[in-house]
Design brief:
Layout: H1 2-21, H2 40-43, E1 54-64, H3 72-79, H4 82-86, H5 96-103, H6 119-135, E2 149-153, H7 157-171, H8 200-206, H9 209-221, H10 230-246, H11 260-277, H12 284-288, H13 290-304, E3 312-317, H14 319-329, H15 353-356, E4 362-370, E5 373-380, E6 383-384, E7 395-396, H16 397-408, H17 421-443
Parallel strand pairs: 1-3, 2-3
Antiparallel strand pairs: 1-4, 4-5, 5-6, 5-7
InterPro entries: His_Pase_clade-2, His_PPase_superfam, Histidine_acid_Pase_euk
Enzyme class: hydrolase
Signal peptide: 1-18
């Protein structure tokens, strides 16, 4: 009899343990990777990298803006989750803590907050400026001035603010007139030259068994008698990841409806989107990254030849800018393309937007003088990158210059208004109009 009691108690104990394991609010280390809405500290370098016996001559930085609020349309969609919060019933299989978190969830953002830098975003850039100032004292050894330090931002408020807080911490100065790109500046203003294609792989993946399983699991855990629409699940996902990016130690209410497998599927969905819109899935994206890489190479070339030029070059933009530069430099390239059909095979992929372009992501390059020889190291989110062609992280400048000179010297690296998406659309419209006009004359030639 005692043996039976012991067995029953063990079964009950294990069941309770399994149930508690499912409780998101008891998870000390929840899954942190949310594609381009990942918090910077989760993926950035965990140590400071310096080069002994090397003096930095020039630092070139391309930074995405810091953590921001959702856009106004996303805010509106997240606000609509109140309907599901209010209708949550005991049919849900959420643990008590997760259930109560959703029932008491409050969302205070309004459309006027859309896309604005938040407190975490301010801290992202303040801390980046302080770290770089400490690591590269030879670069930041003069008071800020626009000749010694070249600064440029896109005209979006979140990018301007990011530049402001970076300079504030790096130089202890308030620069209120942040230089902004001109409309024809192709280093950062790449959106007018993007070729927008339907992302068929993303569409297919959203109809795949992986995404259907996410829909079923989330609907079931909420105790619903019907499956949620994918757009609603995406709103829950956005609520989860935006709140998590603001408070790194938080347990956002809507995160509780997702398993780690769900979050990995949703991350892959985002990676597919960026792979084709800004990555290797579209050959035009390498070309879009050419002007910014050309700027990097030309700055280092001038400095290596002791020509006049800035000690620091600091650009502030968006995820598309960082992605395009990474692609043109050839980092994070998988031998197998990301497809809707190979999610399981690509779990260890290099193209992970969580690592490549979280909030405050950056691509940095440093030109060094190392015992009389010029050398270069590239960094993505402060992590040194290996140049695969040479197998080096601290690479001879002459090798890097020779490697990229054919690219930046190519005519395809030059853009003009005839290359813009607006011009292409206009040209396409004209062609279609002429085709229809010709067909009209052929059909009605008897009347003319």
């Amino acid at each position: 009899m005692k043996l039976i009691v012991i067995i029953v108690l063990l079964i009950i104990f294990n069941c309770l343990k399994c149930e508690s394991d499912k409780c998101f609010h008891q998870d000390d280390h929840p899954f942190p990777f949310f594609a381009s809405k990942t918090a910077y500290s989760y993926v950035s370098a965990k140590q400071n990298y310096t080069q002994p016996n090397c003096k930095p001559l020039q630092l070139w930085l391309l930074s995405r803006h810091g953590t921001r609020h959702p856009g106004s349309s996303t805010i509106d969609k997240i606000s609509n989750l109140n309907e599901y919060k209010n209708n949550l019933t005991n049919n849900s299989s959420l643990c008590k803590e997760d259930f109560e978190a959703i029932k008491t969830w409050i969302f205070n953002l309004t459309e006027k907050d859309g896309d604005k830098l938040n407190n975490q975003g301010v801290n992202d850039l303040l801390s980046l400026g302080l770290r770089l100032q400490s690591l590269y004292e030879d670069i930041f050894d003069q008071p800020y001035n626009p000749i010694t330090y070249s600064v440029l931002s896109t005209n979006k408020e979140r990018s301007r603010d990011s530049a402001f807080y970076f300079l504030k911490s790096a130089f202890n100065v308030n620069v209120t007139d942040i230089p902004l790109i001109n409309s024809d500046d192709i280093k950062l203003n790449i959106s007018k030259f993007e070729i927008i294609n339907d992302n068929e792989e993303s569409k297919k993946f959203r109809s795949s068994i992986h995404m259907q399983n996410v829909i079923i699991r989330v609907s079931n855990i909420l105790g619903l008698d019907r499956n949620l629409a994918l757009n609603t699940i995406k709103s829950m996902y956005n609520s989860c990841r935006f709140e998590r990016s603001v408070d790194l130690n938080s347990h956002p209410a809507w995160c509780a409806v997702f398993s780690q497998e769900d979050l990995e599927v949703l991350e892959y969905d985002e990676d597919l989107k960026y792979y084709y819109s800004n990555g290797y899935g579209n050959s035009n994206n390498e070309r879009l990254g050419c002007p910014i890489v050309k700027d990097l190479i030309n700055n280092f070339r001038n400095k290596s030849q002791a020509k006049p030029g800035p000690k620091g070059v600091f650009y502030f933009g968006h995820s598309s800018n960082v992605f395009s530069a990474i692609v043109r430099l050839g980092f994070a390239r998988d031998t197998t393309p990301l497809l809707s059909s190979n999610f399981n095979d690509m779990r260890d992929r290099k193209w992970k937007s969580s690592y490549l372009s979280p909030f405050a992501s950056n691509l940095m390059a440093v030109l060094y003088e190392c015992q009389g020889e010029k050398k270069v190291t590239f960094f993505v989110n402060e992590v040194p990158m290996t140049v695969e062609k040479y197998g080096c992280t601290l690479c001879p400048w002459t090798s890097i210059e020779n490697m990229f000179d054919p690219i930046v010297s190519s005519p395809s690296c030059t853009f003009d208004e005839n290359n813009s998406s607006a011009s292409r659309a206009f040209t396409t419209t004209n062609i279609l109009f002429l085709a229809c006009l010709i067909q009209f004359f052929i059909i009605h030639r008897a009347f003319f």
